[in-house]
Specification:
The chain is built from 14 helices and nine strands. Helix content is about 50%, strand content about 20%. The protein is an alpha/beta fold and about 350 residues long. The chain starts with a helix and ends with a helix. The protein has one domain: Bacterial extracellular solute-binding protein, family 7 (D-Maltodextrin-Binding Protein, domain 2, 3-Layer(aba) Sandwich). About 40% of the residues are buried. Strands 1, 2, 3, 4, 5, 6, 7, 8 and 9 form a nine-stranded mixed beta sheet that branches.
């Protein structure tokens, strides 16, 4: 009987403590404001891993804040990715998962250097929070009115072609390739032997379909399947450039957030960054398989062909060394053991 009484008292104490914790959390939450934040990415389909993890992040923050912080989530309907960055800087959007527009800061070309990572093991080293991408992202973002929450490797990009199989500089001569408005892409596409043509992302599928260009760079298999599967038929697996995104928050708005909200948002961003790095390779390979099912030809250049292209493309690094800083390039080389 005494044992039963002691056990009952212990259970009651535990319940009382749990109740006190709940009451305390509720009391703290009651003192904090209700916020509806706008978070966006401008390019990936809503079925993509990136967009699903944004939704997961938002749901987790809402749960941990007791419903105090909610989100309006935007995808490609928000508009062009370059405009999204400006919207975030202005505060029209609170938070973005997005690339940096090198038109705003030439140093941001560092994040799109060709072959800065060439395989998924290097991806996990360079794009984990705490590496050189994080170091420079934090420093350069703040100067532009953005608070840096972490790096986001959206995918490893390859070469998409309407119908031609091209694996050498000689075969590339005379062929036009769509590039984004980023100088490093124009540089390495020329080094590969192609003629680069700058075209906004939203117009790229039409440019391929109409023959304005013969192919494009800057996208992995997710984009190829979602946007190009009916207008092209060839993927050359080059992994020539990382589609480097970053998770950033409008700096003024971030500084006005309660510290409790800042902590929760930071922790939940780190969780989805880690999860994305664990799953992004599988997403890429799954979509390559879907392209094959859709009738595409997936071409993997030989080691010799890739080595020749890579050697030429790395010449672009010398072009940007003075802009992005030799010391930063040296840190990157150390991280990827190149």
């Amino acid at each position: 009987m005494k044992k039963m009484i002691r056990r009952s008292v212990a259970v009651l104490c535990m319940l009382a403590m749990a109740g006190f914790a709940v009451v305390t959390q509720t009391a703290v939450a009651a003192d904090l404001p209700e916020l509806n934040l706008k978070v966006s990415q401008a390019m990936m389909p809503k079925t993509s891993l990136t967009h699903q993890l944004i939704e997961e992040f938002a749901a987790n923050v809402t749960e941990r804040t007791g419903g105090k912080v909610t989100f309006k989530i935007f995808g490609p309907e928000i508009g062009d990715w370059t405009e999204l960055e400006r919207m975030t800087k202005r505060g029209a959007v609170d938070m973005q998962f997005n690339a940096f527009d090198t038109g705003l800061d030439a140093r941001w070309n560092f994040f799109t250097l060709p072959f800065m990572v060439s395989n998924w093991d290097q991806v996990r080293k360079v794009f984990s929070k705490g590496g050189i991408v994080t170091e420079l992202g934090e420093k350069w973002s703040e100067e532009k009115g953005l608070y840096y929450l972490g790096p986001w490797l959206n995918n490893l990009a390859s070469l998409g072609m309407q119908k031609k199989v091209v694996t050498t500089e000689a075969e590339a001569k005379g062929l036009k390739i769509r590039v984004p408005p980023i100088d490093t892409y124009r540089c390495f596409v020329e080094k590969m032997g192609f003629s680069p043509v700058t075209i906004p992302w939203a117009e790229a599928p039409t440019a391929v379909a109409t023959g304005l260009v013969d192919g494009w760079v800057g996208s992995g298999a997710v984009y190829m399947y979602d946007l190009f599967r009916d207008v092209a038929k060839v993927m050359i697996v080059t992994y020539d450039s990382p589609e480097t995104w970053h998770v950033t928050f409008n700096l003024d708005k971030w500084q006005k957030l309660p510290e409790a909200y800042q902590t929760i948002i930071t922790e939940e961003v780190e969780k989805v960054i880690d999860k994305h790095l664990d799953l992004v390779e599988k997403e890429e390979l799954d979509n390559q398989a879907k392209l094959v099912e859709a009738g595409w030809q997936i071409v993997v250049p030989t080691d010799e062909e890739m080595a020749a292209w890579k050697e030429k493309c790395l010449e672009c690094w010398d072009t940007y060394e003075e802009i992005v800083g030799k010391e930063n390039i040296d840190k990157l080389l150390e991280e990827v053991n190149m």
